Give the backbone structure.
Amino acid sequence: MTDWSPRTKLVHGGVRRSHYGETSEAIYLTQGFVYPDAETAERRFISSGEDEFIYARYGNPTTRMFEDRIAALEGAEAAFATASGMAAVYAALTCQLQAGDHVVSSRALFGSCLYIAETILPRFGVEVSFVDGTDLEQWRAAVRQGTKLVFFETMSNPTLEVIDIAGVAEIAHAAGAKVVVDNVFPTPVFQRSLALGADIVVYSATKHIDGQGRCLGGVVLGTEEFIRGPFETFVKHTGGALSPFNAWVMLKGLETLDLRCRAQAETAAAIADALPGTPGLARLIYPGLPDHPQAEVMKRQMETGGTMLALEIEGGKAGAFRFLDALEIVRISNNLGDAKSLITHPATTTHQRLTPEQRAALGISDGLVRLSVGLEDGDDLIADLKRALESV
C-alpha cells in the first residue's frame, strides 16, 4: 500500500473484510466482544493482537479501519479516533502533561482550543505561554529547555494565518519539546504536517473528512509508541472514543475526500480572484493569493490555498449581518468543510466568548466573516456573494 497514490489509499486503505466478502466496509455496531475461553480473555487484556478487540472504548474493527486508512494517507505510524475534534485536541495535549509542565501555544486559535490552552490547562498547574504563531522570533523567545509541548493550528481559525511548521519544529525539538498541530484547515490532502516536522497531528473529522455535515469525530496521528502508549491509555480511561457508526461514516467520507477538497479549493481560488474590488468588501484573506502575509510559507507547505476564505465586510457588525442575511446559496452555520458552502460571523459565534480587545488582537473584527467553500457551482457562488455585497 505504500506505493499507492493518496487517492487510492483513501478508497482501499485499512479494509478488513468479514467471511461474507462485503464490498462496502462493515459496521461492527457492538460494545463488547466475546472470547472462546477464559484463558483468551486473560491473554487479550494483557496484550491484544492487531485484530483482537476487548471493548469499543478501547477499539473496534470499523473504527480501526478508519484509523488505519487516515494513517496511511497522513504517513503516520498509527492513529486513534475520538468522539469529536475537541476530544482529540484535549486528549493529545493532556495525555502528555502534568502540573509544572510548560506549553507554548500560538495565540490565534479556535475558541474551544483557546479555552483549553488558556483556562483548562492552567487550572491543573500547566504553564502556557502564548505567541504570535507567524513570528519565529517569538517562538524562540518563549520556548525554553524543559518546555514539554508546543501547539498551534497550522492555518488559524478564522483569520487564516499560516504557521511555518518546519521553523517552529526546529525550535521546539532543539529544546526537547514535542510539536502538536491542528491541521484541520489545510486538510491531509493539501499538507503533510508530520513530514514537515510535527510529532502529533490532530483533525476534527467532523469537518472535511465527513464533509457532509452528518457526524462528530476526531482523530490523532503520530508514532506507534505515542498512539498505543500514552494517548490510547488516556482515551481508554476517559471515554472519548469514536462510535463505530460514526467511524463508518468517516470511512465513506475518506473515499471522496481528495476529490471534494480539490474541487472546493479550486472554487475558493476562483472566489478569491473574483471578489476583490467589489463594493462592500474591505478585504479578502486567502492563503493562495500573492498578497497573503504568509504566501511564501503556504507555497512551501501546501499544494493549494485550501477551501477557506475570510472576508472583511464594510460597516462592521451591521454590514456583516446585512451581507449574511442577503445570501441565498451560502448558508449561515458555524461548521465548515461541508459539501454546502457555509459562512459564519466569528465575533458573535465561534469567538464571542473573547473580549473585544482579545478579538482585536487576533484580527477578528466586527466585520470579519469566515467562508467555507462547498461543492456548488463556482459561478453561482460568486454571483451569490456579489449580490449579497450589494446589500452592504
Remarks:
- Residues 258-390 form a domain with the Aspartate Aminotransferase, domain 1 fold (CATH 3.90.1150.10).
- The CA atoms of residues 131 and 137 lie 9 Å apart.
- The mean pLDDT is 96.
